[in-house]
Write a structure and sequence with these properties.
- The N and C termini lie far apart (80 Å).
- The longest helix has 33 residues, at 2-34.
- 34% of the residues are buried.
- Helix content is 79%, strand content 0%.
- It is mostly helical.
Length: 246
């Protein structure tokens, strides 16, 4: 009986070790995928010389939210493989946001916002990664910010979803990027369950999966409309885009 219990314990420990190893491998794959997640989107905008149908707010807010998520995970000293993709995603979001602004407003009207955004970004990172952790209330503040960050990241999908509904199509939104988002969400649910068991992060990942799945479904609908000839001219940005600069 004792030997049977020991055998069961060894088997459970072995299975747990395999699951953790697999989770780390999946985490590395997510990081690798994150490094190219928005590349299809970046190349599509560059090729078409248009940001038609893309929500500037979505990419901007996601970059802010991901920076907060990154700061929280760093402060908790979680394994790098559970959050490293945030770094690559923030960089890519900034690139896409700059493309949207440039192709929508031109260089002359983009230079000042670019400079102000850079200064703001540096100030935010200095606060989150250097000043705040050194404060007595830093840990609790970062925990609260992570909760807010999750809402920001997931909420950042809503402007794009709403814009797609108003336009009736997804414009230049890349379905490949959205598919990678869905795969990333599924993988992150697995790594969170296996490595950290962080309920807050798990809830955010599940919500993100639902929103990313919605965007992918919208992209699929647009592809079907184009193939059937139902979508001929989708140049309706003047009606539904964010307000343009004067």
């Amino acid at each position: 009986m004792v030997k049977s219990r020991r055998s069961s314990a060894v088997t459970a420990a072995s299975a747990s070790g395999v699951a953790e190893t697999l989770a780390h491998v999946v985490g590395v794959c997510v990081v690798a995928g994150a490094c190219v997640r928005s590349l299809p989107q970046i190349l599509r905008i560059h090729k078409s010389r248009s940001a038609k149908g893309l929500s500037l707010g979505s990419f901007t807010w996601e970059s802010i939210g991901l920076t907060l998520v990154l700061a929280y995970n760093v402060s908790r000293e979680y394994p790098l493989s559970t959050y490293a993709e945030c770094i690559a995603l923030v960089i890519q979001d900034v690139i896409v946001a700059c493309q949207i602004f440039y192709f929508r407003h031109g260089f002359a009207k983009s230079a000042t916002p670019f400079a102000l955004s850079a200064v703001g970004g540096v100030a935010m990172c200095a606060t989150l990664f250097w000043w705040l952790p050194a404060q007595p209330f830093g840990a609790q503040a970062l925990l609260s910010l992570n909760a807010v960050a999750g809402l920001i990241v997931n909420g950042s999908r809503l402007p794009q979803i709403v814009m797609n509904l108003k336009r009736g199509n997804t414009g230049e939104l890349s379905w490949v990027t959205q598919a990678l988002n869905v795969c990333g969400s599924i993988a992150r649910i697995f790594t969170t369950l296996t490595l950290t068991q962080d309920i807050l992060n798990l809830a955010l990942q599940v919500t993100g999966l639902l929103l990313n799945g919605t965007l992918l479904a919208q992209c699929y609908r647009t592809i079907q409309m184009r193939r059937s000839g139902e979508l001929v001219d989708d140049d309706v940005d003047a009606v539904v885009e964010e307000p343009k600069l004067a």
